[in-house]
């Protein structure tokens, strides 16, 4: 609790350090003194002292003295072969700077101390191999490597050309390199087939190009044939012509029509047929056109009709009783309808005396009243049935006397006999109820005998006789009822012959007659004479002839005219004679002639280009003929020069000869517009007359094409015509391979060629076809360029036509770059090498390879050089995979020699340990750099265990962890930490455990931090193996989540021991253990858990002895917290149950006690519940809120106390009673909630740490608690100081009696106790520095852990009112004491006026 309380306030300020609380006191360390040498050591054999000669020198002893001579490959600084004295050095001879170089031509020389190393340039090899060092066996000579002897040097479909130190690959014809270069190296390039089909000009129109490996072919599309008839061909000279498939009658099946199209054709079934497949258009005889059964479609024919299918068609016929709207018996299509036939509209549908009743599609006949059917049926159809009349007259009673019964069809009637009339006056009647009476016919008007007669009445009848001049067929005295019909008619006298003269007409009149002459005759002397109408010119119309006849006349139209009515003869001027158009008859004139009509006549004239057989220009009749005139046989030629004339019926056609043209165009016929003239055609004006890369030469009526220089015709002809010929480029480069000289590339260009140097070569002269001798390719030394093409930290090696790049020791090529592509770069190896591990270290310099070593350093240098040799091999290895197992065995042998380590000085031990630890890390990282199969490894040796793990796809979840184990120790690392490490290549982690190193790097190497309480007696011991964490990324520290190390204790931990997690720092005094960067998370008897925010080499040191300060403070903190919880619980019960104490101040005390109780209880039980991250964050949030609420209620306490004391000095200043409790609760609980809500919203991940459930102290989130708390402490301190000043003034002014009565010591105690109640004692955390830190730590822990006890003591125990309530509760008294005490009232925060009664 003490450490947590301190962390609450100062955790973010950096004052608190783990070292202050956990590190033991360390004694001063003894230093190793350097030995002093005396001059006596030089007596005798001078070479026994290895310092007599410098490094890289050999000491030779003589009888009196000695001399030094530089070793082979070194030269003394004074130039002498032998020398003495310390002022001379042996400097390395740079053999590689000599000329010629010792390695020979085409080689790379690298200088080494006392020797040199030879390697061949790229493209050369030596029988001794590369990296040959002088002094080794064999003779180093670089010879050209014939890369072309290796079939894999060049890719498929290419030809290899070897050159000194290099080679080039050229793709075969029909192929090209993927990069587009003509020459290249290596299998990384490929020769890809040239897709000639990508060029639309490769094949003619209407053809398909088929690309093949190194070639191509053209094939006419279906529906086309090549002009030559070939199925496949090359080049645009061929054309594809359309095939008319419809010319083959078998192309389409029966009942179909063939439609030819460009490159295709289609068959379409005739109407009434459809293809078997259902397609509208199709190809091939495999399809058939089947008859369409239109009758299968119910909509083909309308309602009330029957469909009759036929081949290719169908017909509809209306059903019986219906008729089509158009009246057709058969028809097609739904547009027609069948309407009901109204049979009753046909009078023959039913027999006479019947009524027809029409119905939908039918009808019926019913006999009318008075009739009955012959069959006796009431309704029937057809004329075969008859309606027979019923004869009512067969019954004599049907009619009365003097009447006659008349049967009628379907009825009967009674009619009075002639001379009688019915009583009712009806003419006809039925039934016996009527009688017939006699009629006096002669009195009727008109008389019954008719005009011109005489009538005499008789019973039931009358008698008639005619007057004179009249007669009746019945004769006179005719009585009604006799046969015949009496009628007096006029006697026609004109019927008698000779009544009137000849050529006259007799006209009868009533009772008489008269005579008159006929038309065309006139009377004279009682006779009729003829009239001559032709004597009148107006009798006939114009263009006619009049012909007189006896009693008449006729008009006849003259030849060439016809009457308007079409009659040949006619009368009267009303008729006209119109001209006959003989030309309307096509037979009037012969063929090839024109008919010209004239008034009453016509003429025929031969058309232009024809003449009559007789030679007449105009003629009549079909006997004549019009013959064609041959204009083309005329001289001079009708069409003009350079033309061809073609005779046509009645005309001619002109066309120009080949090579000539007319503005009117060819096939000109007279009568068309324009003047036909043939002029020479300049074929050269048409760019298509000649093929590409040729020149056109025009001539009269012709032209010729000549290929340009550098081209030749495909046929070999010099002159040719037409686009069918092509001019092909002459490949000068293939004809002469040495055209451009060595180390050059000849590039064929259409019509010419160009020369360029191969990559890595240049020519001082620019190539031109005019001066080809000026072009000469020489090698470019790329390594002389500045800046270097290979970049920094690299080695450039020039080769013939190229160069190669390598990296210096400690660097390796960037895998993403390549010197061949110009982006080569060297990256530092992602692990430390010798110069990085111990830069400029004296101990390492003493052990320089090849130098003389002092005897006392022999063992140290042996182990150091053994370790560095492992590191050098790893750093210099660039090709092979690093064997982690073999290197672990070599390093294990170094650890095993612990007996030698004990003889080393502290500085030597720390230096060697640092080199060893760094070598293990570098070796492991190198194994990650080139893993054998990207798999995890577990290496176990006697003194060294390594578990490495390659993280590939396993790291998917941020909260996922990986555990690695080695020799009983364990490391747990978060997935997020691996991502934070910023690894660019392979993600890998490793865990190393050293066995035996703990006895070497023991507690003596713990860094003395000059801790103030270091005087306490303690014992330190190393209690774990040395372990180390390794990660591939560049970031090694500052992780957001710690790396958890679980170390196995060598000896079980005792209760009085405290564990310290320490990490190895190579930069501290050459290598020391320090507690910084790692914290202790858990310590059990068998294991110790440490958390580090960095990848370190780690160990556990146990501190033991007397009870440590940490345990004392832990004990004080927990005891004080438990006492405070008990006191707070008692205070809460007191404030709740004591009713007489209830007031505003008591409620404020109650809320403060509740908040403090809950905060301490939650802290005591839940601050270390870090297993569940979400639960830990919730606990941290509640702790944040509860502790803030405590401080806000402390602020309320301070303000209320100040206002109460202020009222003692100033009357009615401001009463605290005016503040409502609701407002105080809103302030005490609301503001802390607002702070927590805002903090959680801005940084929700700030709640909960890996080792405690509190606010994160590493990201600054702790200030969301420290800010408000610091402000409240400052305000409370000011208010409390001000309150005490006011109270002091007030107490000094009261009367002496009161002053002496009051207990000043009690008053003083309560005043100072308010400092602890109001949280002002938290400022003690500031003074935990310097020599007083120990005392301040105890004070801070005691006071703050007992805050609840102080509240109970001041507000309950020392309050008279509370004590009286306790006494009353125990003694059952009901009346409280009325005595008050000023000091108790004031400083217990009770009202200033006492309660009485």
Automatic annotation (TrEMBL):
SUPFAM superfamilies: EGF/Laminin, Family A G protein-coupled receptor-like, Growth factor receptor domain
Pfam families, per database record: 7tm_2, EGF_CA
Record's subcellular location: Cell membrane
Annotated PROSITE patterns: ASX_HYDROXYL (PS00010), EGF_2 (PS01186), EGF_3 (PS50026), EGF_CA (PS01187), G_PROTEIN_RECEP_F2_2 (PS00650), G_PROTEIN_RECEP_F2_4 (PS50261), GAIN_B (PS50221)
Residues annotated as domain EGF-like: 43-80, 92-130, 144-181, 193-230, 242-279, 291-328, 340-377, 389-426, 438-476, 490-529, 530-567, 579-616, 628-666, 680-717, 729-770, 779-816
Keyword Iron: no
CDD domains tied to this protein: 7tmB2_EMR, EGF_CA
Domain G-protein coupled receptors family 2 profile, chain residue ranges per copy: 1113-1359
Family: Belongs to the G-protein coupled receptor 2 family. Adhesion G-protein coupled receptor (ADGR) subfamily.
UniProt-recorded name of the protein: Adhesion G protein-coupled receptor E1
Species whose genome carries this gene: Bos taurus (Bovine)
Lineage: Eukaryota, Metazoa, Chordata, Craniata, Vertebrata
Gene field: LOC508459
């Amino acid at each position: 609790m003490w450490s947590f309380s301190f962390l609450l306030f100062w955790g973010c300020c950096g004052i608190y350090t783990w070292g202050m609380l956990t590190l033991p006191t360390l004694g001063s360390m003894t230093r190793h003194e350097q030995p002093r040498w005396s001059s006596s050591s030089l007596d005798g054999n001078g070479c026994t002292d290895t310092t007599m000669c410098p490094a890289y020198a050999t000491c030779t002893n003589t009888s009196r003295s000695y001399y030094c001579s530089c070793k082979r490959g070194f030269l003394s600084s004074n130039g002498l072969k032998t020398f003495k004295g310390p002022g001379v050095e042996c400097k390395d001879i740079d053999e590689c700077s000599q000329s010629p170089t010792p390695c020979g031509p085409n080689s790379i020389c690298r200088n080494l101390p006392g020797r040199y190393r030879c390697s061949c340039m790229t493209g050369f090899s030596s029988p001794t191999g590369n990296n040959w060092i002088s002094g080794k066996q064999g003779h180093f000579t670089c010879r050209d490597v014939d890369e072309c002897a290796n079939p894999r040097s060049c890719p498929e479909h290419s030809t290899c050309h070897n050159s000194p130190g290099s080679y080039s690959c050229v793709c075969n014809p029909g192929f090209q390199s993927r990069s587009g270069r003509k020459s290249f190296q290596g299998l990384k390039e490929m020769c890809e087939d040239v897709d000639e089909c990508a060029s639309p000009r490769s094949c003619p129109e209407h053809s398909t190009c088929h690309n093949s490996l190194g070639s191509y072919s053209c094939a006419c599309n279906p529906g086309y044939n090549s002009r030559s008839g070939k199925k496949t061909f090359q080049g645009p000279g061929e054309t594809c012509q359309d095939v008319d498939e419809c010319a083959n009658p078998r192309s389409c099946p029966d009942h179909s029509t063939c439609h030819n199209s460009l490159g295709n054709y289609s068959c379409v079934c005739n109407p009434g047929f459809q293809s078997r497949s259902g397609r509208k258009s199709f190809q091939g005889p495999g399809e058939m056109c089947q008859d369409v059964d239109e009758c299968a479609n119910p909509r083909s024919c309308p309602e009330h009709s029957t469909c009759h299918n036929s081949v290719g068609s169908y017909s509809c016929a209306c059903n019986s009783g219906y008729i089509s709207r158009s009246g057709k018996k058969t028809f097609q299509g739904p547009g027609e309808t069948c309407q009901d036939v109204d049979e009753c509209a046909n009078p023959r549908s039913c027999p006479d005396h019947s009524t027809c009743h029409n119905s939908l599609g039918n009808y019926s006949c019913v006999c009318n009243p008075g009739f009955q059917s012959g069959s006796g049926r009431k309704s029937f159809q057809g004329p075969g049935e008859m309606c027979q009349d019923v004869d009512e007259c067969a019954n004599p009673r049907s009619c009365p006397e003097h009447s006659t019964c008349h049967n009628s069809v379907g009825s009967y009637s009674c009619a009075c006999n002639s001379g009688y009339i019915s009583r009712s006056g009806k003419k006809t009647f039925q039934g016996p109820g009527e009688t017939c009476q006699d009629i006096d016919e002669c009195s009727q008007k008109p008389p019954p005998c008719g005009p011109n007669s005489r009538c005499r009445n008789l019973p039931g009848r009358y008698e008639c006789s005619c007057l004179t001049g009249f007669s009746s067929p019945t004769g006179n005295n005719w009585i009604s009822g006799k046969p015949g019909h009496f009628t007096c008619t006029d006697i026609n006298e004109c019927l008698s012959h000779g009544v009137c003269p000849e050529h006259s007409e007799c006209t009868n009149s009533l009772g008489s007659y008269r005579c008159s002459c006929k038309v065309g005759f006139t009377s004279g002397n009682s006779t009729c004479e003829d009239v001559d109408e032709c004597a009148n010119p107006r009798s006939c119309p114009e263009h006619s002839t009049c012909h007189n006849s006896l009693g008449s006349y006729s008009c006849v139209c003259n030849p060439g005219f016809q009457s308007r009515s079409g009659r040949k003869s006619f009368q009267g001027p009303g008729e006209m004679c119109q001209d006959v158009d003989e030309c309307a008859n096509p037979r009037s004139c012969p063929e090839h002639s024109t008919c010209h009509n004239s008034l009453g006549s016509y003429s025929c004239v031969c058309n232009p280009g024809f003449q009559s057989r007789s030679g007449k220009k105009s003629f009549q009749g079909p006997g004549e003929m019009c013959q064609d005139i041959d204009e083309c046989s005329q001289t001079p030629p009708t069409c003009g020069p350079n033309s061809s004339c073609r005779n046509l019926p009645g005309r001619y056609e002109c066309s120009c000869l080949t090579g000539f043209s007319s503005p009117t165009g060819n096939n000109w016929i007279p009568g068309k517009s324009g003047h036909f003239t043939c002029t020479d055609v300049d074929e050269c004006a048409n760019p298509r007359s000649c093929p590409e890369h040729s020149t056109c030469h025009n001539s009269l009526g012709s032209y010729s094409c000549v290929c340009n220089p550098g081209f030749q015709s495909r046929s070999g002809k010099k002159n040719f015509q037409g686009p069918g010929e092509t001019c092909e480029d002459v490949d000068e480069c293939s004809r002469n391979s040495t055209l451009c000289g060595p180390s050059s590339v000849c590039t064929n260009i259409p019509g010419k060629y160009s020369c360029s140097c191969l990559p890595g070569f240049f020519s001082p002269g620019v190539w031109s076809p005019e001066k080809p001798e000026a072009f000469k390719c020489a090698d470019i030394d790329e390594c002389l360029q500045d800046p270097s093409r290979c970049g920094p930290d690299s080695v450039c090696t020039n080769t013939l036509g190229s160069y190669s790049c390598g990296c210096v020791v400690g660097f390796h090529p960037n895998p993403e770059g390549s010197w061949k592509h110009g982006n080569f770069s060297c990256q530092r190896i992602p692990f430390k090498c010798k110069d990085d591990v111990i830069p400029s270290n004296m101990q390492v310099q003493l052990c320089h390879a090849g130098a003389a070593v002092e005897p006392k350093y022999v063992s140290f240098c042996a182990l150091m050089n053994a370790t560095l040799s492992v590191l050098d091999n790893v750093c210099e290895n660039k090709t092979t995979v690093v064997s982690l197992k073999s290197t672990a065995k070599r390093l294990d042998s170094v650890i095993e020699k612990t007996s030698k380590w004990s003889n080393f000085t502290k500085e030597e031990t720390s230096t060697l340990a640092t080199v060893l630890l760094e070598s293990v890390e570098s070796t492991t990282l190198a194994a990650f750099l080139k893993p054998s199969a990207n798999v995890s490894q577990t290496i176990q040796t006697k003194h060294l265990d390594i578990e490495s793990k390659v993280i590939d796809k396993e790291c998917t979840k941020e909260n996922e962890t990986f555990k690695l184990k080695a020799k009983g120790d364990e490391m747990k690392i978060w997935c997020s930490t691996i991502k934070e490490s910023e690894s660019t290549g392979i993600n890998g982690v490793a865990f190393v455990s050293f066995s035996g190193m703990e006895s070497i790097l023991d507690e003596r190497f713990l860094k003395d931090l000059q801790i103030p309480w270091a005087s306490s007696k303690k014992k330190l011991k190393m209690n774990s193996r040395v372990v180390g964490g390794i990660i591939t990324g560049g970031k090694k520290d500052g992780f957001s989540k710690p790396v958890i190390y679980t170390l196995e204790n060598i000896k079980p931990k005792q209760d009085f021991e405290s564990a310290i997690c320490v990490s190895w720092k190579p930069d501290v005094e050459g290598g020391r253990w320090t507690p910084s960067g790692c914290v202790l998370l858990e310590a059990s008897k068998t294991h110790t858990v440490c958390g580090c925010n960095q990848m370190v080499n780690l160990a556990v040191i146990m501190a033991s002895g007397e009870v440590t300060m940490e345990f004392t403070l832990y004990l004080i903190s927990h005891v004080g917290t438990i006492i405070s919880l008990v006191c707070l619980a008692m205070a809460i019960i007191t404030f709740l149950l004591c009713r007489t104490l209830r007031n505003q101040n008591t409620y404020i005390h109650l809320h403060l006690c509740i908040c403090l109780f809950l905060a301490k209880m939650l802290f005591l039980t839940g601050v270390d519940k870090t297993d569940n991250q979400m639960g830990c964050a919730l606990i941290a949030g509640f702790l944040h809120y509860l502790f803030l609420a405590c401080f806000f209620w402390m602020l309320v306490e301070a303000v209320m106390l100040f206002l109460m004391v202020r009222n003692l000095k100033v009357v009615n200043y401001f009463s605290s009673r005016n503040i409502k409790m609701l407002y105080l609760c809103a302030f005490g609980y609301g503001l802390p909630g607002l702070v927590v809500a805002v903090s959680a919203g801005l940084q929700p991940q700030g709640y909960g740490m890996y080792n405690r459930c509190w606010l994160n102290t590493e990201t600054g989130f702790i200030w969301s608690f420290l800010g408000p708390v610091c402000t409240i402490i400052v305000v409370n301190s000011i208010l409390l100081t001000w309150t005490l000043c006011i109270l002091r003034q007030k107490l000094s002014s009261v009367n002496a009696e009161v002053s002496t009565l009051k207990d000043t010591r009690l008053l003083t105690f309560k005043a100072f106790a308010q400092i602890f109640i109001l949280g002002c004692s938290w400022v003690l955390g500031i003074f935990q520095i310097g020599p007083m830190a120990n005392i301040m730590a105890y004070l801070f822990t005691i006071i703050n852990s007992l805050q609840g006890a102080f509240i109970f003591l001041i507000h309950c125990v020392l309050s008279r009112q509370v004590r009286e309530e306790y006494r009353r509760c125990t003694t059952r008294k009901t009346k409280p004491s009325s005595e008050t005490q000023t000091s108790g009232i004031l400083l217990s925060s009770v009202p200033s006026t006492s309660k009485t009664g």
